[in-house]
Every structure is written in C-alpha cells, then in structure tokens.
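Convert to structure. Protein one:
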Amino acid sequence: MTLPESSRLQLTPDLNICRILNGLWQVSGAHGRIDPKKAIPSMFCYLDAGFTTWDLADHYGPAEDFIGEFRRQLVATRGEEALGNIQAFTKWVPRPGSMTRQWVEKNIDRSRQRMEVESLDLIQFHWWDYRDRNYLDALKQMAQLQAEGKIKHLALTNFDTEHLKIIIDAGIKILSNQVQYSLVDRRPKVKMEQFCQDHDIKLFTYGTVCGGLLSEKYLGKPEPGWTELSTASLRKYKNMIDGWGGWNLFQELLTVLQDIATQYKVSISNVAVRYILDQPTVAGVIIGARLGISEHIEDNARVFNMTLNAKDKEKIEAVLVKSQDLYQIVGDCGDEYRR
C-alpha cells in the first residue's frame, strides 16, 4: 500500500507528517491490555503503509516506551537513516504547581529517555487549572529547552481560545493545539478556528470518529446501554452524543454518512474524518491504534482517495443544524476537563 501525496503535510521545514496520526491513548490501559510483543510489529505495519506519525503522552501507560523500542528495532533492522521516516508527538501533563527549571527539565528529559530521542519532535502541553498561572512559567521553561535543542517545537493540548491568546501574547511561539473536533463536536468553529488562522497555529483533532461510534457498526442499532460501551472512548463520546442531540438524531447523521460513503465506496468513518481534515487550520486527525488488537490501516487509507463536494456537505449540514450547541453546553475547547 502506498498513500498518495495528499496524505502528507509539510508541517514545518523539519517535519513532514501523515495527516492521519496514530493515536496511542489506546495503549494506556483504558481500552484493554496491549501485548508489547504484538504492539511493536504492528507499529511497523503502520509505518510501511505510510502512517508515519504518532500521537502519545507521558501518561499513556507504555506509549513513550513503545516509541523507544520501535526506534531501537527500526535502527537494528533498517539502519539509522530509517528514523527520519517517523514522527512522534508526545504530551506533558503535569499537576499544577511551581514550575521550576529543574522540574520542567526533569520531565522533558524523562520523555526523551523513554522515547530514545535527543530532541522531542513536538511536545504538547496540557494544564488542568487555569487559576494556577504557573502554566506560563512551564511554557517559558520549555521555550528555553527548545532553544537548547531538547525540544524542536512547542504545542498545546486542550487549551481554550482565551488562554491560547494569553500564551501568544506572552511571546511564546505555539505550533499547534490538540482539540476534540468531530461532526458531533464542532466547538472549534466558534472561536478557536479563526484565532488559529490569524496566528498561524494548526489544529490536531481527536474524537473525530467518536471512539468508533461514527461507523457502520452503530447504524440502525438501538441505543447502547452503559455496559455495552466497552472502552473509555465509547463511554466518553456517547456522553457527547447525548448532549449533542441524542441517539435518534445520531442515527439520522449515520444514515446520511452511509449514503455518502456508499457513493464513494468508503466507510462512514472515512467520511467523518475527511470532513474534519477539510476544515481550516486542521493539520491532522488522530485515530486510535489498538496495537496488536485491531488495526484499521486499509480503511484509514481510503480517506485520501475521496473528496467531499458541496452537495455532500449540504446533506451533512442539514442534520447538524438540528443539534444542540455544545459550545453553550460544554464551553470552549478543553473546558470539559476543567469543570
């Protein structure tokens, strides 16, 4: 399998990425046990198919260790130059409190060691409590580490527009913000999208297939009970669907997506991902990879073989206008984590 050129984005002069990122939240334990002996060979399958870009975090269980082992095996089997073919974007999610140079550097060094890298491609910073303004100290310390070569690029995850502006106004260069963005959750369109356009900031999106709910598996099916939702993702995004408009409206959306998917000989998930990839400032969509358990490599590849036309988007919009305003219910991007 060879992905088309449209699957790639020159994010920065030194980072050429795949626009579908392999998400490693699924190895954190909330989606079932991952066997490391199966996980690393699975990562090679993604790489060889053209899915070269990984999204992870310091608290996603063994995710950073998997990247480190993957890099070691890649060098052993294909040589040092093969490392240039992969990109790994991690996150730092500290508890709020004093952010000294020593503390920040210790945490960055731990990720570097686990991932077997001299310099982190992209560090996506998350902060739990805006009332504690030490997040600015942390970012300033990371900017210094960036200048020293331990970090290539600074980014954020789940920051709202107001606090993203505070960070930019403080003179800190931010490459991207990772936010929840899907046909069900279009909160980024309210404020975030325009701000990012104005300040040359990209968005990486997660939740774009609602943990798998945006798929044929749930089309025409009765509303699942809590015990039928077997992963943390399914439970999380079912809650979002409830607030957005409920199961009956969701079935309307799935029906429209199925009609479009049939037209292009793709899946419902493909249509959902393509729609978000086409939004302004979106650099890439993160799709979970349950390594060694279930891969969707061939299906994900079909996203790059289709284009949604104006009529397709009108059909989708006709359903979306019936939904509730999640911005009014939940708040701006990331606010669901700070209630």
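Protein two, convert as well:
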Amino acid sequence: MWIKIKDNGTGVSEEIISQIFYSSFTTKSVGKGTGLSISRQIMEETQGDSLTCSSVLGEKTGFTIALHLA
C-alpha cells in the first residue's frame, strides 16, 4: 500500500532534499525538528517499510510511505 502526501507550498531545494533524513539536519532552530530521520529509521528498520521525499523548487513537496502489508 502506498500513501502519498503533498503540500501546497513552494517546494524545497535539492540540497535540502538530499539531507532531509539525516539525524543532525534541520531547517529549524537548534533543538527542533529531527523527526524525519527518526520516522524513517523506525519504518525501515523495524517495519520493512519506506519513507521518501520528493520536491520541485517552486512547486509542491511530497512524501511517499510504502507499507508492506502481510
């Protein structure tokens, strides 16, 4: 099963997309915003699922969650 979520914002740069799942990366102030790396780790390591992000600068950003159903 696939779940796709898209926003209606202005997208993010390729530089940010390439770092978005790193545990130390955030665009927020210090001590805020490390949830994406933790979310991806939980999904991939414990569930065998996946979480990906795609974006086009000037357009929307989207996340795709792929769930492996038994």
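The chain has one domain: 2-66. The beta strands are 2-6, 50-55, 61-66.
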